[in-house]
Amino acid sequence: xxxxRAGLAEFLRGRRGALQPEDVGLPRGQRRxxxxxxxxxxxxxxxxxxxYYTRLERERGPHPSAQMIASIAQGLHLxxxxxxxxxxxxxxxxxxxxxxxxxxxxxxxxxFDRLGDTPAEIVTEVGETLRQTPLGIALVGDAMRYTGPARxxxxxxxxxxxxxxxxxxxxxxxxxxTYAAGLRALLAVRGPGSRxxxxxxxxxxxxxxxxxxxxxxxxxxxxDEVKRxxxxxxxxxxxxxxxxxxxxxxHRLMVYxxxxxTEDHDKLEMLAVIGAQSLSPGAVDxxxxxxR
Length: 292
Prior knowledge:
Elements: H1 5-18, H2 39-45, H3 50-57, H4 66-75, H5 80-89, H6 106-113, E1 120-123, E2 129-132, H7 134-140, H8 153-159, H9 172-190, H10 195-206, H11 208-216, E3 226-231, E4 235-246, E5 251-257, H12 263-274
Antiparallel strand pairs: 1-2, 1-5, 3-4, 4-5
Helix pairs in contact: 2-3, 2-4, 4-5, 7-12, 9-10, 9-11, 10-11
């Protein structure tokens, strides 16, 4: 497919002009004159330079890769139809839709963007973290830095001992059962050739604990709403986890809270002050297959 530079530029300008700062979690400010978002704001949302994005709007620059177009689609909070249109304008085939898609819906993103002072994250059905708030990173660690199978927290749970560090030891056995049971149930839904099937094959080859649990063939094992952590900076704390599911993309928005006035709430506020940058490094996971 050939790139339609004029159409691409026109579509980008139109979508940028239709977005308001509050739509993407940005402050409006008192001196805003732009009828929509500024180019540098969109570039930041899309994780690219302002110069690169500006050249696209001016029908110049290199042919953007599919990965770059996916980032732009997410940054502009495009719907699936709009995302597919953007890919075609850029000369690429649109990605597949459904459970394997990593394109977060605009509605879920709008909610997420308003949770800047709350620990929250968006995960796929196989436990790949797509978005985390700063306080979410401070609480459970940077789960977006992984690549390959390790993006799945279930895979890390059985293959990387560090994945268990921030979970209290008495919860480990039940969490292992939950991971195995969740993957078993997901495989039955998605079938051979799915991401769930691939992860199951890898874990069967790499983890004796997983093989033992897999043979039991449990399903329907879940974690409690209250999650318990042993945090390296603030010690032991308990939080409630509420889940919002996007039925079309099979994404979960996980929000962690503690009751005001409790010691756990004070510890979350302390984490907000400390910030993710000062926390001890290490892989941290928060629940089996996206379930906490």
